[in-house]
Specification:
By secondary structure, the chain is mainly α. 84% of the residues lie in helices and 0% in strands. The longest helix has 30 residues. The C terminus is likely disordered.
């Protein structure tokens, strides 16, 4: 055997014992060049594949790259890497796949599948924070489903439980508000039914309550106002003579007063807006605020009132010609969208105030060029002629030749 072949064979054997992929690659190349037996070279190549695959598997595990690890595990099985490394890689892959399934299920939001993925993730010891997040999402999803089902059922008890759960699990506040409104409505119907049944059982009829309910159904402000007055008198009388009068109409009175407020606001507000009646507009909007009446028409009324108030302040500032107040009033008027003509008029008055102030300052400065510029600006700003004439006189004096003047040394 040639010395070169022997040397290459020894190098190949030594590289295989070091389990270094870099050295082994070099030794395999040298062995092939020197003509070492193919059987020995093949054995080294197989070992190199195992080492490279083991490194790739470990790298995928460290990177938590499920797709890469999946491919490398399949390759590791084919090249038969060390059983301990292979088992560890397979266990890690199972955890990462369970985590991947859980994340996909969380995105899809399918409640039943999410529960199965959570169970698998728990079994495979997936990251606890991810499991907690998934459990919270599962609870929220279940609460949303229960809330929707309770709303469809119209069952007061189910609604009450579903609303409480939905609140605890962070369901959308809009969905909760809708369900709460339905719950309140059902509770009110239940309370009314109980009152009617109580009257039927006792053989006594509450005429005051019946009148209030009828007025509420009719939604007529006159009837409502009379029924409210009667109910309040009945409750006051019941405090002194409970044997003759029935009390306890507070809830019905509040409902009727709320309805009256809503009807009156919607009745009077359009006309107040049309006529731009500040006094009426303010009164109607105050009532709307008191009874929490909302809507686009309310917003329109508020905007108009702000404009009218700002226009009045602007008018007063323009009349008094108070510069500071005029500046402030103009800013507010622009913000709320006061009619452009009013703003332009106020801006002209302010410009005249500025021009007149500059005219006085220019006269005091005794600088001809400044006085001339101030006179020109004052003319454009419609400053009173008297003030302009005064400036022109001052300018003429400054420009007069120094004839007859005597200088004493």
């Amino acid at each position: 055997m040639k010395p070169k072949v022997v040397e290459a064979a020894k190098g190949l054997k030594a590289a295989m014992s070091t389990a270094s992929t870099l050295q082994l690659k070099g030794a395999i190349g040298d062995a092939k060049s020197a003509g070492v037996k193919q059987q020995k070279v093949d054995k080294a190549v197989v070992l190199l594949q195992k080492l490279e695959t083991t490194d790739a598997v470990k790298s995928s595990m460290e990177a938590h790259d499920v797709e890469s690890l999946r491919k490398n595990v399949m390759r590791a099985k084919r090249v038969e890497i060390d059983e301990k490394d292979l088992n560890k890689a397979q266990s890690t892959l199972e955890v990462l796949e369970a985590e991947e399934m859980l994340q996909i299920s969380m995105r899809n939001g399918v409640t039943g599948h999410l529960k199965k993925c959570i169970d698998i993730a728990v079994f495979k010891n997936v990251d606890e924070d991810l499991i907690s997040e998934a459990k919270a999402l599962y609870a929220k999803s279940g609460a949303e489903w229960s809330l929707a089902k309770a709303v469809r059922s119209g069952d007061l008890d189910k609604l009450e439980a579903a609303v409480a759960t939905a609140t605890d699990t962070g369901v959308d506040v809009g969905d909760i508000a809708d369900a709460q409104a339905l719950k309140d409505e059902l509770q009110e119907k239940k309370d009314r039914k109980a009152e009617v049944e109580k009257e039927r059982d006792t053989g006594e009829k509450d005429e005051v309550a019946e009148r209030l309910r009828t007025a509420i159904r009719l939604q007529e402000t006159g009837a409502l106002s009379k029924a409210i007055l009667l109910a309040k008198r009945s409750d006051e009388a019941a405090k002194e003579h409970p044997e003759y009068f029935k009390g306890g109409h507070e809830k019905l009175i509040a409902e009727a007063e709320q309805l009256v407020a809503e009807l009156e606001v919607m009745l009077h507000l359009p006309m107040a807006i049309k006529r731009q009646d500040v006094k009426k507009l303010r009164a109607v909007l105050n009532k709307a605020e008191e009874f929490n009446v909302e809507g686009d028409l309310i917003d329109q009324g508020k905007q108009l009132l702000n404009q009218l108030d700002a226009a009045e302040v602007l008018k007063q500032a323009t009349t008094t010609k108070d510069e500071a107040k005029l500046v402030e009033a103009l800013q507010k008027a622009r913000e709320v969208g006061v009619e452009r003509g009013r703003i332009v008029k106020a801006e002209q008055v302010l410009a005249a105030l500025y021009a007149r102030a500059e005219l006085s300052a220019a006269i005091d400065s005794k600088e001809p060029s400044r006085i001339q510029a101030a006179i020109t600006a004052a003319g454009l700003a419609s400053v009173p002629r008297k003030a302009i004439t005064e400036a022109e006189t001052a300018l003429a004096i400054l420009n007069r030749p120094a004839k007859g003047r005597v200088t004493y040394l």
